[in-house]
């Protein structure tokens, strides 16, 4: 899976975004990295194949202006830098990052129809590959694959051209292309806010005196936050420095499991950790059977929160090591949870 974060406040966004991602990089993601900010009505973005260190070494991302921004770290996958987040519309005034997958929403016919519609409206997809990648968006003629997040970006842009309200555009996009995801959106028309939508994948919210912070996991937040809370499931949100508003996502043929098997999950994770050092995926696997098969699970959210609790209880530590990246000679971080 991926990691993402956002900041909306009165301080330069980039240093805060870099810290938010650095605190969670290697728990997931690490193979592609990107960042976007809004300043004076203009979108700024940079992305690379590689980890946060590569983003800083290969681009001027550290110098991007603005007090509002988003950042993303993607897991290992196909493609080059074009497949890194954020994805940007043709006018370069909209940027989005996503974490998740198709999950139980595997309607390839619906996806193919959307691709055809967008192609007829002159949208191009630079993430195209002739390989057929499971879980991504497949072209109607079977000739290849495009990144599913780029498809959502272009669909959202297409819909927004006929709908002035971004909430309405997100609602319509989520109805037409439902996924088990969480996403963050910047738009130059709304320079002081970040839009978000969460179906079931993890997103945590933190509030400080003059800012709103978002992250895949609360482990990334610095000390001293006034409040930390989960973002609501199946919801659209608009975040400003002062607070946020929420609207429901109307689409979703499948319910999201809203009762956490927390006690059982805690014990399953402890048992796994006492046997060996575990990555986040190992801990998800250890607790996956606890979730009902007929519902979209919140297993990532539960695992992150139990890890946070175990750290608070001083029963585990996080250990970082380097593993091979996608480029020759490249190394990216990987973090394991280690039982004391």
Characterize the largest beta sheet: strand count, sense, and whether it forms a barrel.
7 strands, antiparallel
Question: In the residues, how many domains can be counted?
Answer: 2
* CATH topology heading of the largest domain: Glutamine Phosphoribosylpyrophosphate, subunit 1, domain 1
What is the subunit organization of this protein?
single chain
What labels describe this entry?
globular; 17 strands; alpha+beta; seven-stranded antiparallel β-sheet; 8 helices; 2 domains; 340 residues; Glutamine Phosphoribosylpyrophosphate, subunit 1, domain 1; six-stranded antiparallel β-sheet
Task: Please give a structural write-up.
With 340 residues, the protein is an alpha+beta fold. The protein folds into two domains: 3-248, Aminohydrolase, N-terminal nucleophile (Ntn) domain (Glutamine Phosphoribosylpyrophosphate, subunit 1, domain 1), CATH 3.60.20.10; 262-318, no CATH class. The protein is built from eight helices and 17 strands. It has helices spanning 13-24, 52-58, 108-120, 148-160, 166-176, 262-275, 280-287, 299-312, and strands spanning 3-8, 32-39, 42-49, 68-74, 87-88, 94-101, 137-138, 145-146, 180-187, 194-198, 204-208, 211-215, 227-230, 235-239, 244-248, 316-324, 331-339. The protein has a seven-stranded antiparallel beta sheet, with helices on one face. A six-stranded antiparallel beta sheet has the order 5-6-9-10-14-15, covered by helices on one side. A two-stranded antiparallel sheet has the order 7-8. Strand 2 (32-39) and strand 3 form a beta hairpin. Helix 6 (262-275) crosses helix 7 (280-287) and helix 7 crosses helix 8 (299-312).
